[in-house]
Structures are given as structure tokens and as C-alpha cells.
Amino acid sequence: MDFLIRPIEKSDLDAIFELAKQTGPGMTSLPADKVLLSKKIQESENAFKIEPLSPGSESYRLVMEVDSEIVGIAGIRAKTGGFEPFYSYEMKHARHSSPSLKVDKEIPYLELSQEYDGPTIIGSLFLSPKMRGHGLGGFLSYSRFMFMADHPERFTDEVIAEMRGVINEDGKSPFWEATVRHFFNIEYDEADYLSAKDKGFIGDLMPKYPIYIPLLRDEAIEVIGEVHKHTKPALKYLMDEGFKRDAHVDIFDAGPRIIAKTSEIKTIKESESKQITAVMDTKDIDNCSDYIISNSRIDFRLSKAKVLFCENNQIALQQKDMYKLGVKLGDYVRIRKSI
Predict the structure, then answer these.
(1) Are strands 244-249 and 59-66 parallel, antiparallel or unpaired?
(2) Handedness of CA 23, 29, 33, 37 (dihedral sign)
(3) What's the pLDDT tens digit per position in 54-110?
(4) Which residues are catalytic?
(5) Taking a C-beta distance cutoff of 8 angstroms, is the pair 191, 252 a contact?
(6) Cα angle at 113 between 109 and 116, to 5 degrees?
(7) pLDDT at 53 over 90
(8) What's this model's pTM, rounded to 2 decimal places?
(9) Distances (CA, A) of 47 to 40, 144, 290
């Protein structure tokens, strides 16, 4: 399926709003609110315009087009924390012993964590339900790493992702209902929406003391570190890229957090920069392999295309793909073997 991935623009607002309405609860980074979405689009446009000396609060958002229709979105925040803390629960263990009773147990508990100078975080990955099953979600996910590979100075040396946790058929989070709801006195989806606007209330209301996991209801314990059913493909893509689970979970739905060294992410590690030195002849197309290709510029473009390798490890592309990517003979592009 032919597609193009590019930076989000103001004119995309209506299409992104329609996507956001399909996400369901738990997708904090993509609220179904035009005012908030407009701010996020402006934030992204600003990030692409500046040349930061080091990673900061910049937020980059990419959209996927199929036949000129926006069908997906993905995002990167250069660094977590900063002017407001990044919250998570860290799973720890406490040892409880009694020699007289011959008891020696490790009890798991959750402790509120606040990061002010954390790693790069990827998120906002969402593909329209009608476009699923064609492999497009993988391209959308990998596009973030292709951009990071060409602009390493904009990102930290570690990358994390918070995966959406389990939400039941009633739209409720079992973890939220058993824990945080007692402190907030509002519904999960309302807290989720409010956190997209301003996270200040989290520091005011979140429980400051550890939560001992064995004291929770079984249905809450069972979802700690588990992902939403619609998030499983995204988790697989990232685990295949080299991400691993760490000890942190989301404070609202207990979805898992995963982490990777930036330089060890598969796409970043295996993608290569190549110079275009020729236009491909149509007779060579059947002998070429499919690659993911990005234009290596800040006005990012990524698609799938046939690549012909020439002398000195240079490449030839079809004219239509060069036009789509906005490149010409002599330009460098980044390529990765297609999925």
C-alpha cells in the first residue's frame, strides 16, 4: 500500500481530530479536543523549525497519508521532565522477615517516581482501524527512528515508551478503580483528559506513600504491566526493535514502560545513509528490493520504495519516489530494509 509519512501541519487538524475520536480511553497524548490538538500541532511545528543545542521539551509529530488521507500519527518528545515532572510508578520490593515465625518474604510495592531530566519518549502512535492489517503500523513506528537516526543531536541517549494499559469493556481501568481513583474522586477518562491539559493536579493528589501490591484486588494486580489489546502490535514492533521492559508502569492504568539505548535501536543501528546517483530504469524494477526510505532532512518525508544499488554503494530510485520524498540526484537518503 502506497503511503507517505511527514510532519504534522495546521491544516491536518480536522483529520487528526477524527482520528482522536477513535482512540478510546487511555490515549492521553491524542485527546479528542480540537483546542488541545491545535496546541500540540503548533508545538510540533515549532520543534521542526528550531535548531536546539541539546534535547529539550521539543515535541515532534508525524502523520501518515494514504491516497492523501491522513490515517495515522506518531510522536517523539525530545526529553521527559523539564518544567513539569514526568510521573510513573516504579515497582520495588521490600523484605519482611521474622526469624521467630520463620518468615522471610519479598513484598512488591509501587512507589511514585518523578523525573525532571529524563530520556526521550516516543508515543501518540495510532493507526486508523480501517487501515490495520496491512503492515502500515510498523512503518509508522519505524519512521520515528529514521528521523532520530538523521538528527541524533535532538534526542537523548535513551528512549522510553509508555504503553497503554488494560481498559475493560466498560471503558474503566481496573488499576485506576482499585488505587488512584480513591484520591482523585473522578472517573478514569476524565483524569486522562485533564492530564493532557495540565499535569499539575497529579502532584497535588497522587498518593505519596508506597502501594503494596498484595493488598490490591486481584483484578487490579492482574493488569499491572499488561497492555491494552489494541496496543499489543505496537509493543511487538518496539520489542523487535530492541526495547526491554523496565521497572516502571503508568500511574493511571499501570501499562508497562519499555526502554532502549538510542544507538542500539535496530532501525537506528541498521539503517544507512546513501547517495542517489541515478534514476532507475523501469527494466530494473523487478530486480530491486523494497526499502523504507527517508529524505534525511528536517522537512521529513518517509515512504517505501524500490532501491537499486549502483557502483560505490550508491543507489538509484524511481523518479516518482524521488518526487514523493522531495529529493534529487546527488542528495543523500536513509534506507532500511523493508518489513
Answers:
(1) unpaired
(2) negative
(3) 999 899 999 999 999 999 999 999 999 877 788 999 999 999 898 899 888 999 999
(4) 228
(5) yes
(6) 170
(7) no
(8) 0.90
(9) 11, 14, 31
